[in-house]
Amino acid sequence: MLLRINLELEGYRVLEAGSAEEVRQAVAGGDIDLILLDVRLGDDDGFEVAAELRNAYPDLRIAFLTGSATGMVDDGKLAAAVIQKPFDLEELSETVARLARR
């Protein structure tokens, strides 16, 4: 919720998804510029969801949120950025702004 509020205060329109299926539905609904996707989803694997979205929407920007980026190598294939938790809001804001400009 804090993440959503912070991004809305910066002028972004934010949609929240509580499950992988809600993420899929939101993206299918269109007009999504960037996804902040947790690597560990309760009902699915974030890497698998990212791969599915990347395949269906090649221009979609994805940033992974993770509690453990140690050893995580993506090389930009699935995600344009990796944000390690806990993160500060300034780091998050800078990453979102950078990805939103692409």
Question: Can you put this structure into words, describing what you see?
Answer:
The structure is a single chain. With 102 residues, the chain is an alpha/beta fold. Helices cover 39% and strands 15% of the residues. It contains 4 helices and 3 strands. It has helices at residues 2-9, 20-28, 46-56, 89-100, and strands at residues 34-38, 61-66, 81-84. It has a 3-stranded parallel beta sheet, sandwiched between helices. α3 links the parallel β1 and β2 (61-66). It is globular, with a radius of gyration of 13 Å. The chain starts with a helix and ends with a helix. The relative contact order is 0.17. The mean pLDDT is 86.
- What characterizes the major β-sheet? 3 strands, parallel
Question: Strands across the major sheet, in which order?
Answer: 1-2-3
**Please, what is the average pLDDT?**
86
- SS element count, helices: 4
- Percentage of β-strand residues: 5-15%
Number of strands: 3
General form: globular
Roughly how many Å is the radius of gyration?
Answer: 13 Å
Low-pLDDT sequence parts: none
Look at the helices and sheets and give the structural class.
Answer: alpha/beta
Helix content, binned percent: 25-40%
Name some characteristics of this structure.
alpha/beta, globular, 102 residues, 39% helix
